[in-house]
């Protein structure tokens, strides 16, 4: 399988497109000639990115400001998605919280669930009918290596990412033979290639630079996996290590250790 060929009437929809993995994938897909619909909350920044990509790569990049944690905003977006010819969907938007579940702000936790899980669920459902009818399309959902294990002090995040992981891999098998594929991106820690010392979190300081996966590398490995119709991609050495450890190490051993580490991030 290969990625869908750029077409003037088709669009690639990317959520979380104003930063991180979503932005890196938007840049790479624009470079390949795909028209884009970029979705994120920050309208001014999103429009700037859309204008820059349109000018640089001679494609059409549309900024679509939307708070995907808001049910009404999602409903409006879903209605529009069903009218577009979506060749690829990249669900990259997400947030996290750290610390004991009962100490978290409940509104934030509900927004986190809506953004990380419900939006992925609803947007995937919105684009699949058109893809299946055309027998062409690719869905990439961004889960996490953290979704492979129970991590205390990161409960809501791992709840949502475990769901995204399993949902996407289940779809991968369901879609075999349809011309449509689903790929799970399940990274470990990802960040900018160079991060100023003043902006470094405890995780940045503890994990050596060479172990990190950059947004750009993450995008490149993911697009390669999507082009091959792979079920799952885990970029970077640290992500691969987390993936292996979670598969073989006893939960009773690794969960308390991970929980202690994540509590330090609260």
From TrEMBL:
Alphabetical list of InterPro entries matching this protein: KR_dom, NAD(P)-bd_dom_sf, SDR_fam
Keyword set, alphabetical order: Oxidoreductase
EC number(s) on file: 1.1.1.-
Enzyme class: oxidoreductase
Record domain Ketoreductase: where: 10-193
Coiled coil: none
Cellular component terms per the entry's GO annotation: membrane
Pfam families in UniProt: adh_short (PF00106)
Family to which the UniProt record says this protein belongs: Belongs to the short-chain dehydrogenases/reductases (SDR) family.
PANTHER family assigned to the protein according to its UniProt record, in alphabetical order: DEHYDROGENASE/REDUCTASE SDR FAMILY MEMBER 7B (PTHR44196), SHORT-CHAIN DEHYDROGENASE-RELATED (PTHR44196:SF2)
Name by which UniProt lists this protein: NADP-dependent 3-hydroxy acid dehydrogenase YdfG
Lineage summary: Bacteria, Bacillati, Actinomycetota, Actinomycetes, Mycobacteriales
